[in-house]
Amino acid sequence: MIAQHGSRPISSFDDIAYQTSINPAHSTTYSVGETLTECPETGDLLDICYDWNKVPVPSSLREFEARWGTRRNPLDFSGVWRFRELLPFAPEDQVVTIGEGQTILQQANDVAKYVGVDSGNLYLQYEGLNPSGSFKDNGMTAATTHARMVGAKVAACASTGNTSASLAIYASTTGLLRVVVFVGSGKIAYGKLSQALDYGALTLQIEGDFDDALKQVVDVCREANIYLCNSVNPFRLEGQKSIMYRVLEGLNWEVPDWIVVPGGNLGNSSAFGKAFIELKELGLIDRIPRLAVINAAGANTLYQLYEQGVRWNGGSPDRDKIDTFYREMDEQNRRANTLASAIEINRPVNLLKCLRALEACDGVVREVNDAEVLDGKAIVGAGGFGCEPASGASVAGARLLRQQGVIAPSDRVVCILTGHQLKDPSATVGYHSPESDAALREKLAKAGVHDSAHKNSPVAVPNDFKRIMDAINRID
Question: Does the residue 58 lie in any domain?
């Protein structure tokens, strides 16, 4: 039976939750009351871990359904915090929520046909229904909760757009934080930039790309004692685990065969793997689904390293090979370049956590080009659920894996749609109507998109009733 934490003192959560290095060779733990983005001893990423024997975890995931009847409680309304026994690091009276996680798992038979799986076997998890229009809200509710716990007054992030929009909306809605966001100059879709500006964030446009912005914000936060909200923050990923809880709920608590997710900074894939590892450990699921992480070909660090044989290897990845890859990337000045701006990242901070997730989930990594990404996006949109370009990578990746025989026609596949269609309307208009804007047409051509296979171009007609009727009568 689901129990309640009430408003236990923050210090009392130290006997339940703690921070520790992801490196299994090191066992030092740190309080959840500390603000850390890396292990002080090893420099590795941190995990939030729990003594599950002290947590009132339900005996069945179905018990969480009871909270649908108490949705006047903001924590039970939240699609993150109604699963709070599975991320028990915060007192209930410290939780920051704006109603995130009201997302749905949608069966999509037209997309199933495009991918090549049996009708009824492909689902879209549409995270664009979150308040800021992307999956980031699942993590930001957890990060801002921790920021409140430690008394932070200013928070910051680097962003390709979605993170900045999410952090800014939490700050403006709650009034708990002032926000600074770092974005790469010319590297953010206007739909996303407009959100950070509208929500009152101080927006710094750095001369460079996301990787440059992230390096700067990490240094600034360390120097100025500002709370960092990028996914290097381990509390962010705790919130993003809830996406998988809702996927399972949408499937009547049955585990799918595949989770297919775009790969950018690799926070989602890392969080998904951690969620399934914990659920299996707790006996709440009997098996773990396979995980497919899909890079854009123009931002394919994970894919390249995976092809070179880099694996988690039980916690001993080939760090020399990773370091060599990054050194050569810098020497050659290779920069991420894709129309899927949300995953236009060459230095994914959660690389090692993602490798761990891939090992736990018997995962695979693939890359798809921008034309395939936009085709996948168009197929999703034609079915009524528009998405940002990066989300199209999950559909394109699933199609590729089906063509390669890795995914079977009978497999049940869940593709994660990370953000709303209106996040990047220029990409949508450019795909469907490239002739309408020379600049958009040139941008698509540079990305290798020369033919929009599934475009739905507007039809120009004179201001004449008969000619308008002629156009309408041509509808199939």
Answer: no
